[in-house]
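Operator note (shift B, R.M.): manual run for Reverse transcriptase domain-containing protein requested after the automated queue skipped it. Running by hand, logging everything below so the morning shift can see what happened. Input copied straight from the record, untouched. If output looks odd, do not overwrite the archive copy; leave it for review.
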Amino acid sequence: MAYADDTLVFLQTHQDFVCLERLTTQYTLASNAKLNFAKTQAFSLSGKTSNYWTRYLRSRETPITSWHDRHSPTALTYLGYPLYFNASQKNLAIDLLLQKIQRGCDIHSERNLSIKGRTVVLNTLLLSKLRHVLRVVPLTKGQIERLRGICSTFLNASRFPKIAYRNFVPYKTKGGVGILDPLVQQLKLHWRWLADLIISPALLQQSTYSHRSFLHTSVPYLKYGLSLIASGRASSYIWPLLFSTKRRGFRQLTTNSFTILFSLMDSLPTYDLSQSNLSLATFLQLDLASIVIPASNTPIIPASESIMSVVFPRNSASMSKILVRDYFIVDPNTHILRQRSDRETRFPTLLRKFRVVIANGYIQHIGNFGRLLGTSIEFMGAIDLRPLLETQMSTYILAFDKLKQLGVILRNTFFPPKPTTIFSIDKWQTFCGLPIFPNILTIWFRAIHHKLPNKSLLHHIIPDTFLSAACIHCPQTEDTLQHFLYDCPVKQSIWIQCLSTFFPDALIEPGRILAILLSLEYSELKNKKSTVATSLSFVPIVGCILVGIWRFHWKLVFDDKPFTVITVLPLCNSIVWQLHFQSLAD
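Run finished. Output pasted below as returned.
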């Protein structure tokens, strides 16, 4: 039972309720405060309807009529978290939450915010409502994609062409703006459970970490659930965490929380089987695909396929179910590890094919297993997967010490930087720290991601509306991004004259401006100060000229203002002087 002031009381019988009433009566006499039972909400922990409780609560002098169970249309909200008993209650609660975020995005979309401003609003004001719930309520893939769509629409509001959502998520030093992706946040919030499962127990018991591992009561239940998935092997809870093939049928046994744990584990750096010190007993329990690697004659393996699907295109499904022990055996007489004969295996046809591809150099055994073949085995050891975890233990410890490092790993896994934005960290840090107006940063950021509305791109996206890819000023030339920014003769004249105004002695080489705008190649111009606007260096002035040309481009499009050196140059100069005087004031 939960009261409006978030007091939660667990009751089992009517006598417990009578005892609660007696205690609250004493409290109200002592504090001169009264308990409003009309605002009290009762719910069943099991989700089952209880006539035993509903009749009793409604028969009181001050009846309690709010009752929640699996048949209620909505979830019960406690401390901001939805307490749900079925999928429909959960989905409705998430839908209401997403609607709140959508309304917030709609309100803030009316503001003329820069990309940096929209990022701050989204991360701090809007998505903060979600992170509170993500700690205990897992979202489905569909709900995550819906939320990403809401965020992408907000970040691209009133802008076209739109930047893909995946390009907003990387950190600023990776070419993004650091949007807090819901999937990354969900996985980070579940790391505290996974860490207790994969980090060495002896390490967690050290004084350095013991106070941070606080889920000892939950871990046994997680291990038990994982062991059910893995069919009860020794130390079996680790198997489904490391091997996706050991998770077959887990959806019938577990809840969505295990799905998140598996997704998180798969997102971490993979174990290095060749560097592990696994026992032979453990090797024999692995999938056959785990102990083979490409060899000299291995065909090219596409990123979306596995080595087994390429080498065994007709038998990949069958080969994926084969264990090492199905093909290898310790000879009972000689105690030598060898391949099984056709009579000793359940899969003689597949074994013969396996021998052929090994002999032809299409695949080979990993080194530490290959060294065991043909040798006398004195002791097979126990089945233990901990050595596999040890190969990445330094990464796990780093993520345990610094949760932000885990965020870096997850972002790099799900949202790798696009080729056009793979610049050095120093370049991105310089760009993000430029003393320029936020709107300049927004336009420049879109240029780096090749999302400015040049005619060539618009013609490619919506050819029915933009019939030609030619430049407005020079109809014989295609209006590519480079032409739109600098190569157009009219704009090139504006760039040269404006830069010569503030850098009379500077010699600007052809291509240098485009290298700064699109590749952040600052070189020696990074710290070159203007002798005219003395508070500004070369790169911020480049940004001012960019936004001046941008503004006048739209005056030409919407107001039919003539776009010439005479008309555009004063605007560019005024923006430079405005930034100069603001820098002096700061």
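Quick read of the result: Residues 14-72 form one domain. The mean pLDDT is 89.
Leaving this for review. - R.M.
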